[in-house]
Amino acid sequence: MDTDTTEQSNREVVPPRLHLRPVRPMESGIGLPYAPENWPKPGDTWRWKVGPRITGKGTFLDRYLYPPKHLPGLSNTETLRKGTAFRSRLSLERYIRLAFPDADVRKFFASFSWAVPSTDGMKRSILPVYTSDEDPMDANVSDIMVCKAGNDKCGSLMPPPSETEPMPCDICCSEPSFCTDCSCILCCKSISVEHEGYSYVKCEAVASEGRVCGHVAHINCALRAYMAGTVGGSIGLDAEYYCRRCDARKDLVPHVNRFLEICKTVEYQGDVEKILNLGICVLRGSQRVDAKELLNCIESTVIKLKCGTSLEDLWNDDTPTIWSDFSESGEGKDNDDAVQSLQDVTPIEPMPFNHEAEMHKLEEEIREVLKALREAQESEYQIAEVRLHAQKECLGDLYRQLEEEKSELSRRVSGSEADSLMTNVLKRLDQIRKEVTKLKEMEEVAKGFGRTPKGILEEYFHLTIEE
């Protein structure tokens, strides 16, 4: 009798044969095969969702289970975060044992598959169906993780600590080959960790649910997109970085402050100049005192390199430099000391002309001029389009009236009424000739508003031209 009961219990926990279809990163769904159904009551359905990270076995490292809202104790469950999602098998198991002490936990987990295969996985083998003697999610975190972008040096290969866990993202991170940790949010290409990762910036703003944004961007891409450096207008950046994903701002002065220290470990002068020139682009135009001081120091270092100073002599120079004071000021040193150090190293003789800096400034001015010209031309085009089409409609109405008057005249062979109709036809023809002449004059704008006579612009386009 006991043997029959045991066999019956074993048969009950054997999971159904599930077809585990591969899913895309950030995909979600309802019920089987990746979420339970009809539990704890018939009709209860759970939702599931996967994240962007993939293990070496081709399954998702991040997967979430959303229980039915009516289940007891969800609001008091410490393992749940905002959004009522279970993010680990352990947290879900603890909840079931607490809220449903009589439930068979192993049978519950055997009813669906916790492991979710990815369409972008490195290995696409069919996952096994677990029996009652197997744990469907035993030490999944120990699996070898694979970066979605194929970067073997990606930071996502090391599980982040809970306090710095990146926020879920279903916008850019839904792309098959985009990785939050190593793909630039602006160009989608991988970042480089060469020279301590000076060339990129990471947004560490707390976005939601206590998680950081975590998206990265090449500084050069951000500069070209007017999302880094000093930018006016509605963005209003001052030596800062603007994250397109979460709209947070990041101060770039501490980031650039590391550049000179990084350069001391670089052996190739070309790389040193490249790093320092990037710092100059970030700091140029800033109105902040600390940014101006750091910019002067970096520009002085670049000038020494261009004047033939070797890297060995550059870093062995006994002259005090401002960047060391910047590093120490972050640990409690007063800014007044940094300002005084800058005054001490400021040369009395005129600074040499910085050719590259001036050329970059001219390039920015020309870009702004061309942008304004394009906007002005688009505005002029719209004005001309409206006025010319209005004149065309006017002529169309006159032609229709002329046809009607000529048709009426053909039915009146004689009499005073016929004479009156003839007079109207002649007047209409004269009016049409004047409007055609007006249209020809308006077509002078084909040469451009700058070469169109002032009288035409004022009379036909209602533009007031100042002397």
TrEMBL record:
The keyword Lipid metabolism does not apply. Residues 22-118 form the DUF7081 domain. The keyword Zinc-finger applies. It comes from the Eukaryota. Signal peptide: none annotated. Keywords: Coiled coil, Metal-binding, Nucleus, Zinc, Zinc-finger. Residues 355-460 form the DUF7615 domain. Residues 359-442 form a coiled coil. It is found in: Nucleus. InterPro entries: DUF7081, DUF7615, Oberon-like_PHD. Residues 150-281 form the Oberon-like PHD finger domain. Pfam families: DUF7081, DUF7615, PHD_Oberon. Transmembrane segments: none annotated. This is Oberon PHD finger domain-containing protein.
